[in-house]
Design brief:
There is one protein chain. The chain is built from eleven helices and 18 strands. By secondary structure, it is of the alpha+beta class. It folds into two domains: 139 residues, Nucleotidyltransferase, domain 5 (2-Layer Sandwich), CATH 3.30.420; 160 residues, ATPase, nucleotide binding domain (Nucleotidyltransferase, domain 5), CATH 3.30.420. Strand 7 and strand 8 form a beta hairpin. Helix 3 packs across helix 4 and helix 6 runs antiparallel to helix 8. Bound molecules: adenosine-5'-triphosphate and magnesium ion. Magnesium ion (MG) binds next to loops. Belongs to the FtsA/MreB family. It comes from Streptomyces lichenis. This is Cell shape-determining protein MreB.
């Protein structure tokens, strides 16, 4: 971690700008925002029509003068101005007034592991536009590990898998730092995309964007495991005729389609373990992998990882908010700094 806990303790607000959801923690008030990172704009007037949950419901259902924008993509802010407007509305007038009163507003934000300076700049600019005078960036992996209560500071290895919408990040941590880590550009979005592509190619069926999740759940029953129902009926639109149509889909085939993006995640985990010093890998046999992030809820993903790695795998409690709550815990001073007293040199 490049910023110290001391600096973080001086921050007033913690922000996690994710590709799918934006979360804000305010010191003294807790988690105040947890909404989709979406804004709907009237393209004729430029006015903001809706943000968050309501804007997400509009996706794919708008007349052409309304544009639904996602200012955060691939885990980085791609449209700073829109991200600022979205955040302003998500925070609301009351909270903003409260934050404006601080003479020197300091903010902390999560940043994906290994994010490039340009992406970091965009996050900082977004928060500076909201009135922050200083912005501290913390690696998502560390924030999430703290948030799910892993003993990050201890000299034993802990392994965390952050399954987001745009990326999956995996790391082995020890003594409060990242030992080895990998960021894989595959997340919940890629998994949804795999289902949509499968139905399009195999059944010439277009699926409304918002029914992918229910489909995943219905299809799998018990998740990616083979015990779910053998087939299920789904409704969509025929690719060629444009008419409504239903098809019976074999769950095994969809499961197979889902495995393709997940192979990249398994490869990433393998690479992290191979790069990790053997003593730490030995620690992991007991501790195993902790999964956080929204996609950790994908039914059966934990079992798939358990089978592939042979290690214990657990899903953190409320996995989606771990990163921002971890950052919040650091702001509140609930995390004790690791005190490594230098040994007195023998004369
Ligand atoms: N019950 C569920 N089953 C399957 N997938 C889920 C479930 N709940 C959430 N997701 C997926 O989790 C993802 C959102 O996770 P999260 O909120 O951690 O993303 P994010 O932090 O915004 O993204 P990123 O960290 O990649 O920028 C979405 O892709 C969503 O499809
Ligand atoms: Mg995230």
């Amino acid at each position: 971690m490049t910023v110290s806990l001391e600096q973080l303790r001086r921050c007033h607000v913690a922000v996690d700008l994710g590709a799918a959801r934006t979360r804000v923690f305010v010191k003294g008030a807790g988690l105040v925002v947890d909404e989709p990172s979406v804004a709907a704009v009237n393209t004729r007037t430029g006015a903001l029509i809706a943000v968050g949950e309501f804007a997400e419901k509009m996706t794919g259902r708008t007349p052409d003068y309304i544009r639904v924008a996602r200012p955060v993509s691939g885990g980085t802010v791609v449209d700073v101005e829109m991200a600022q407007r979205m955040l302003r509305h998500l925070l609301g007038e009351k909270l903003r007034r409260q934050l404006r009163r601080k003479p020197l507003l300091r903010a902390a934000a999560t940043t994906p592991h290994d994010s490039d300076p340009l992406a970091q700049r965009a996050t900082i600019e977004t928060l500076v536009g909201l009135g922050a005078r200083r912005v501290e960036l913390v690696d998502t992996l560390i924030a999430a590990a703290v948030g799910c209560g892993l003993p990050v500071e201890e000299p034993t290895a802990t392994m965390i898998l952050v399954c987001g919408a745009a990326t999956t990040q995996v790391a082995v941590l020890s003594l409060g730092s990242i030992v080895t880590a990998e960021r894989i550009p595959v997340g919940g979005n890629a998994i949804d995309h795999a289902v949509i592509q499968y139905l399009r190619h195999q059944h010439e069926l277009m699926l409304p964007s918002q029914s992918v999740r229910p489909l995943q759940l219905a299809l799998h029953g018990t998740g990616l495991t083979p015990d779910g129902p053998a087939s299920t009926e789904i409704h969509g639109r025929d690719v060629a005729t444009g008419l409504a149509r239903s098809v019976v889909v074999e769950t095994a085939a969809v499961r197979q389609a889902l495995h393709t993006p997940l192979t990249a995640v398994l490869d990433g985990i393998g690479k992290v373990l191979r790069d990790c010093p053997p003593d730490l890998v030995a620690d992991l046999v007991d501790g195993g992998i902790t999964m956080v992030g929204g996609s950790a809820r994908l039914p059966g993903l934990d079992e798939l990882l358990r089978d592939a790695t042979g290690m214990p795998v657990r899903i953190a409690e409320s996995p989606d908010t771990c990163a921002v709550l971890g950052l919040g815990a650091m702001l509140d001073g609930r995390i004790q700094p690791l005190t490594l007293n230098p040994l007195a040199e023998a004369e």
